[in-house]
Amino acid sequence: MTLQQIHLFEMRRLEMLSNTIFGVAMTLLAYDLPKASSFAQAPDWHDVLRVYAQPVIALTISFVVAGLFWFSHHRRLAVAPEAGRGVVFLNLFFLLSIIILPVTNGLYGSYRLDGVVAVIYGFHLLAIAALNAVLWVLALRGRHDPQLLATALFPVCVFVLGTAMAFIEPRVAQYIWCLAFLAPFAGWLAARRSA
Prior knowledge:
There is one protein chain. By secondary structure, this protein is mainly alpha-helical. The protein has one domain (9-31, 43-194). The chain is built from nine helices and two strands; from the N terminus they run αβααβαααααα. The protein has a two-stranded antiparallel ribbon. It is globular.
């Protein structure tokens, strides 16, 4: 065993921690949904939409974003099963950004159309995507894999654009953020172009 191998961390341990963090964070997204006690009497369709529409839209965006980043995180750990201390700490910051997701999701679910709240939520999504992209760049060092790189970088571009739109028109930002779900398609296009 070389000295370099002694200082490497087995990422499968981080994988167990990340499964727990993602699972708890994704479950807590539903915590801020309105309770049935929000209604004084049995609600009609209009009441249900008025009370639940914004929080459910925010929950859906956040849940799918978290799910996609969970998938990306596990793929990245498979690509780079060992890493040094710096990459491990960067992964911990990435997981911290996931832990905070229920907080910004609750804020966004309550005040989705407010410009300040939409920008805060957008910056949070951008931070998650940027940390993920940096970790992918580090995992792919010395490898030529345009598909994985494009899949990691595409959400960063989308969240930059969506957050910029949140400054101007918060109502439109949510639709731009949803384009991040096309990241696998962007990776497929990058792979086709390089072939």
